[in-house]
Amino acid sequence: MNMLTKFWNDEAGFVVSSELVLIGTILVLGVVVGLATVRDQVVQELGDLALAISNINQSYSFSGVTGHTSSTAGSVFADLTDFCDTTADASGSEPECINVQIPAVAGG
After folding, report:
1. Is residue 79 within 8 Å of 59, Cβ to Cβ?
2. Is Transmembrane among this UniProt entry's keywords (predicted)?
3. How far is Cα 55 from Cα 48, in angstroms, rounded to an integer?
4. What is the CA radius of gyration of the chain?
5. C-alpha triplet 14, 32, 50: angle, nearest 5°
6. Which terminal CB of the chain, N or C, has fewer other CB atoms within 10 Å?
7. Please, which residues have CB within 8 angstroms of residue 60's CB and are 6 or more apart in sequence?
């Protein structure tokens, strides 16, 4: 019975355990917020990359070539803008054609 009383009254590990729980909780909350920020920035950068690639003009043309005994016809391709293509990307705005939205769920 004496050992049970000593065990019950011993509080040496209580402070360390509560501190570890508090530190662990703060770390987990910080990691969740940090990962959400990283996700948003990665989506933004990928949208900027897509916008940069979409602004590359892929038009080409070449005229026909005629030799002594043969000839080839010329060709042309005109790159048209897509429905998402724009020429400006405002700072702090969402990337073109990419929306990261989570719909609200009713709490009832």
Report:
1. yes
2. yes
3. 11
4. 32
5. 165
6. C
7. 75, 76, 77
